[in-house]
Amino acid sequence: SHKVFGFPTGLGALLVRRDSAPLLFKRYYGGGTVFGTVSRSGLHLPRSDLHERLEDGTIPFLEILALEHGFQTLSKLAGPMTGIADRTFTLAKYVHDKLSVMKHYNGAPLCIIYCHENFTDPSKQGGIVNFNLLRPDGKFVGYSEVSNLASVHDIHLRTGCFCNTGACMNYLHLDTSLILNHLEAGHICGDSMDIINGKPTGSVRVSFGYMSTLKDAKTFVSFVESNFQHSTETSSDDLIDRPSTNFIGRKTDDVIVKECGDVGDGRGLEVETVEKRGREGRWIKVGDKVAIVSSNTTIGTACKTYKLDSIRLYPVKSCGSLEVSEWLIGGCGLLYDREWVVLSEHRACLSQKQEPRLSLVLPFLTPHSQHLELRFQGKASLKVSLARGGTEEGSNQTRRQGRDFSLSSGGAVCQMRVCGDKVTGTDCGEAAASWLTEALSRDCRLVRQTHQRTAKTPSSASGSGEAPLLSLANEAQYLLVTRASAEYLLSEISKRHTKQLLSLDDLVSRFRPNLVVSGNGMEPYEEDEWSEVTIGGQRFKVTGRCSRCRTICVDQTTGSRSSEPLQTLLRLRGSRATFGVYLTAQAFPPDFDDQCISVPQTLSTTTLW
Questions:
Q1: Among the listed residues 527, 481, 581, the one whose alpha carbon sits nearest the alpha carbon of residue 249
Q2: Closest Cα partner for 285 from 299, 271, 275?
Q3: Distance between CA atoms of 182 and 202, rounded to whole angstroms?
Q4: What is the distance between the alpha carbons of residues 240 and 69, in angstroms, rounded to a whole number?
Q5: Are residues 460 and 523 in the same domain?
Q6: Nearest alpha carbon to residue 471 among 492, 449, 444
Q7: What distance in Å separates the CA atoms of residue 482 and residue 542, rounded to the nearest whole number?
Q8: pLDDT at 96 exceeding the cut of 60
Q9: Same domain, 258 and 364
Q10: Beta strand 306-313 with 322-324: parallel, antiparallel or unpaired?
Q11: CA angle 37, 42, 45 (to 5 degrees)
């Protein structure tokens, strides 16, 4: 009944002894309790955490008692159920009929709709439309891409398998072996892995209720037309990974220069044509590193120079940035980067997705400050001591080696979750809580991290054999973006809009990078192919690309939201909407004490193709 009436689920808490966990396996399972399931065989994989295995709870006796009152209230609001059914069916049929006839420029259908009777009988079809979208070449559009873009337009959709794996297997033609392969590939219930080997793992569902209107239905149809229907060949996606120029570049001082066959002036590259998996390619050796690339790859002979253009840190997670010309680096990222977090009234980590005004909370400090100062327009500033346990945070050695911090004296200890990880923190007190509550007009607490996390990236990323340490950053120690990629994205945004929506600096700030890089001849999204970056004497391993969400739609200077740049980024880069790369610091050199990175230091990269 909580889905029908919005009624709270249960009394509030189920207390369980942790040491009884091995005995607590039900004969049934419900939504949210498994990683995956195969309906035809009963095979299912329970979630590993005890509280997740018990997510479906106990018999909902409160909701059962509330059913009569709920139906009475619904009748007062919207009339008899037959009338609600007729209205919702009519709206769903309108969307169904519109989607059914939509085609791309080449006559290919835009949509596959999953239903029994083609919306001819309201007794057999409710107020939902379940579908997947197709590109002009017949490839599926991932449901995550549709959902992410819909959220930009304030359209709320359900995606995935909707706890109905039997229907998913039937309509998407998934057999048991494919479901097991999906699990092996890392796909679990509720994630965003929407396409595996070209086949969808779920679908999109638009649902209508008693409060829905014809305007809502028309808005959704217009959204699909304007964002997924291609009217000309040139409107299809022209950039998913990166432009296809395939430039291989190395700085001449990074390799031993040898005489090379057909490479022009020689750059320390050895090239040989090879065959790999039945396809001709080119074997390229740079020093002791080897890569196989396609046979039409162009090998650049011009020397590229990159520079560190900007350094930015975010002392309070999801709040404003602090741009500096130089800064100390430590064992889990830039010194003080994302060391504090704002908790909501529900004691959950608050982000700009829920509270865009966090961007207006501006930090000020230096590596040798005694206080973190926070400013908000119209309010006196707040100063938070950097001291821990009665000592000043002057020991960069502690930060560099990644030791656990001692607790601040007098601060209440609390636990929170960051990207699924349990993190321990210390409450910064009533003065900080009151200041934030007044600034954001909602109940908030300021909490400082006390124990570092370990990243989910492989332990080899740190170069020390141990998993890299993290502050409160989502995925990695550093996030790097390039101006070349931002300029390309800005040009694509400009093509879609008659007036300029964003400046380059505004666009870059929305991606909330730690490091911004520029350089002559740099290509858009070239950073996607980097494997290592060196700044000064410090090496950083590239550990992955950064997938983007609605946060990049928040103007970091005003706190207002817009549909860009996510709308264009999804069209260019697909459902993951990647922009920028994650970095992890390699093992520190012996003379590393108090080492800084600074602007405009020279930056060199290693690329393996």
A1: 527
A2: 271
A3: 12
A4: 52
A5: yes
A6: 449
A7: 14
A8: yes
A9: no
A10: antiparallel
A11: 40
Domain assignment present for 172: yes
Q: Rounded to an integer, what distance in angstroms lies between the CA atom of residue 470 and that of residue 543?
A: 13
Say if CB 338 and CB 328 are below 8 A apart: no
Nearest to 187 by CA among 198, 172, 176, 202: 202
Q: In the 8-state DSSP scheme, what is residue 410?
A: T
pTM for the predicted model, two decimal places: 0.72
Query: Beta 289-294 vs 298-299: how paired, if at all?
Result: unpaired
H or E stretch at 4: helix 2-5
Query: CA 484, CA 315: separation in Å to the nearest integer?
Result: 27
Q: Is 391 left (phi over 0), alpha (psi -120 to 50) or beta?
A: beta
CATH number at 104 reads 3.90.1150.10
Active-site residue list: 163
**Considering 235, 264, 280, which residue would you say is the last residue of a domain?**
235
The neighbour count for residue 498, using CB atoms within 10 Å, is 6
Q: Residues 276, 222: one domain?
A: no
Is residue 240 a part of any domain in this protein? no
540 pairs with which residues across the strands? Answer: 533, 585
Q: Could you tell me if 466 and 387 lie in one domain? A: yes
Q: Are residues 312 and 295 in the same domain?
A: no
* 242 domain-assigned: no
pLDDT band at 591 (very low <50, low <70, confident <90, very high): low
What range does the domain containing 485 cover? 307-607
Query: pLDDT of 514-558, one tens digit each?
Result: 999 999 889 999 999 898 998 888 889 999 999 998 899 999 999
460-467 long-range Cβ contacts below 8 angstroms, 24+ apart = 461/541, 461/543, 461/584, 462/541, 462/584, 462/585, 462/586, 462/587, 463/539, 463/541, 463/586, 463/587, 464/587
Residue 600, preceding peptide bond in cis (omega within 30° of 0): yes
255 and 200 belong to one structural domain: no
**Residues 558/562/568/574 CA torsion (nearest 10 deg):** 100
Is residue 241, in this structure, part of any structural domain at all? no
Residue ending a domain, choose from 182, 208, 235: 235
CA distance 302 to 54: 60
341: β partners: 447
Q: Is the same domain home to 372 and 269?
A: no
- Sequence-distant (6+) residues with CB within 8 A of 59 are none
Q: Do 67 and 156 belong to one domain?
A: yes
| CA distance linking residue 105 with residue 101, whole number of Å | 13
Give 311-368 pLDDT, tens digit per residue: 999 999 999 999 999 999 888 899 999 999 999 887 788 999 999 999 999 999 987 8
> What per-residue string of b and e applies to 243-269 under the rule 16 or more CB within 10 Å gives b?
eeebbbbbbeeebeeeebeebeeebbb
Rg (CA), the chain: 27
Count of structural domains, the chain:
3
217 — alpha (psi -120 to 50), left (phi > 0) or beta?
A: alpha
Buried b (16+ CB within 10 A) or exposed e, 14-36: eeeeeeeeeeeeeeebeeebbbb
